Amino acid sequence: MRRLLILLSVFALVASACGGGDDSTETTAGDTPTESDSAAEPDEETAEPEPEPEEEAEPEPEEPANDNPLNALRVPQDFATIQDAVDAAEPGDLVLIDEGVYNESVVVETDNIVIRGVDRQTVVLDGEHSEEMANGIIVFSNGVAVENLTVKNYFSNGVFFTGDYDSDFILRGYRVSYVNALNNRVYGIYAFNAEYGLFDNTYAAGHTDSGYYIGQCQPCNAVLSNNLSEYNTLAYSGTNAGGDLFIVNNEFRMNRIGVTPNTLNSEELAPQRGATFAGNWIHSNGNPETPKGGNTWELAYGVGMVLPGANNNLVSRNLIENNLNGGVAVSFMPDGDTFWLAENNTITDNVFRGNGIDAVMVDQGGGEGLGNCFSGNTLDTSRPADIDTVLPCDGPEGDLSDMIGIDFFSPPGADENVPYADVASPGAADQPSMPDALTAPASPADVLPEFDDFDLDAIAVPSGT
């Protein structure tokens, strides 16, 4: 029996080793895997783990956009009124005015600030012809600049820089650039008892006195350049003003009278003396669609440039044309009981054409030229005749017997004028804005580089276009 069991066990082992005739390749539990099986199915314990996905970095927070890169005192974003911003300003600050109409009169008493509009045409200070608002901007401090805006309808003046009339304070440093001054009752842009100034790229129209005025300074140390004045009683007036005063490269047109450096008792430092007028286009004056500023000035109606009581001025390389009654007239100035004489003015190398009379020397009494001289001018008519020859700058005087009187130019009729508030300002809309108003840092008027490179010899007769 035991032998039988052993034999059966052996048989079973043999049968198992031979596969028992079964073709199945299924591996049963307890079977040892083959090498190929091991390659196909790696052991879970030895397999490399799959890499985990990297976490995305948190984005850096964006810097908020700077909506005030000039660090300006902005109106109305930061201050409700221009006056509020000006009062808060410190030297070196920029007051930046956004588009809008501002019915206020601004007083400046802080040195070296800049007041600027974002756009010349759409930033408007409007006085509404109210007696409560005499001046658009009046400045009592040094080094202030006004830029890129319109100031209109004020009862006295548009922009006014002033020292004290009868004290030792003389305002020093001023500038007005890219500004329109329209229909202010007296002056457009005005400096009085002030020195080291610049008016440039401005426009003035509709004033009963002058578009531009410089008064009571000796020396003035001032430049007016690239300005346009029209539809005023006077384009430019300078009472008792001179000494390094340069009126150059401007256009003065369509006023009652053009340019008038003059002497008056009403201001100190008389007589007027020592200004230069060069490279200006002075034309088409004698316009009745302008405000009338007084009977005295009507004596010079329609004259491009008058030198009444003016002294030691240079008038050179200007184009003076199509003025109704006269191109240039040298004359005494009647002021109450005083007759201020015009002496030692030099009128040279100008081009005259189409004027009533190109050049006139008014008889100031005594039949003498009083040092006034003419040379190198291109002209057709004059009184006295052949004025470059009889009043030469490099020789003796000739026959002056045909000089004329101050009343030679007849004034227009009493109704030939327009109230200042109703005067048109046809050139205002054509004036360009300051090109970099939103990016240029504040540049106060305590330093004026125009004086460092000013070259009178480089100024030429304008083309007239």
What separation lies between the terminal Cα atoms?
143 Å
Fraction in beta strands: 25-35%
Helical coverage, percent range: under 10%
The rough form would be described as elongated
CATH topology: Pectate Lyase C-like
Level-2 CATH architecture: 3 Solenoid
Mean pLDDT, all residues? 89
Supply the CATH superfamily name.
Single-stranded right-handed beta-helix, Pectin lyase-like
How many runs of DSSP E, i.e. beta strands?
A: 33
Q: How many domain units? A: 1
Largest beta-sheet details: 20 strands, parallel
Backbone structural class: mainly beta
Q: Count of DSSP helices?
A: 5
CATH top level label: Mainly Beta
Give the C-alpha Rg: 43 Å
Low-confidence runs (pLDDT<50, min 5 residues)? 1-44
Q: Can you offer a commentary on this structure?
A:
The chain has a single domain (73-449), classed as Single-stranded right-handed beta-helix, Pectin lyase-like (Pectate Lyase C-like, 3 Solenoid). Helix content is 8%, strand content 32%. The chain is built from five helices and 33 strands. It has helices at 2-17, 35-40, 82-88, 295-298, 387-390; strands at residues 73-75, 94-97, 100-102, 106-108, 114-117, 123-126, 135-139, 144-152, 157-162, 171-182, 187-192, 194-200, 203-205, 210-217, 222-225, 228-230, 234-241, 245-248, 251-253, 257-262, 275-278, 281-283, 303-308, 314-316, 319-321, 326-331, 333-335, 338-340, 346-348, 351-353, 359-361, 373-375, 382-383. The strands form four sheets. It has a 20-stranded parallel sheet that branches. It has a seven-stranded parallel sheet with strand order 4-7-9-11-14-17-20. The chain is elongated, with a radius of gyration of 43 Å.
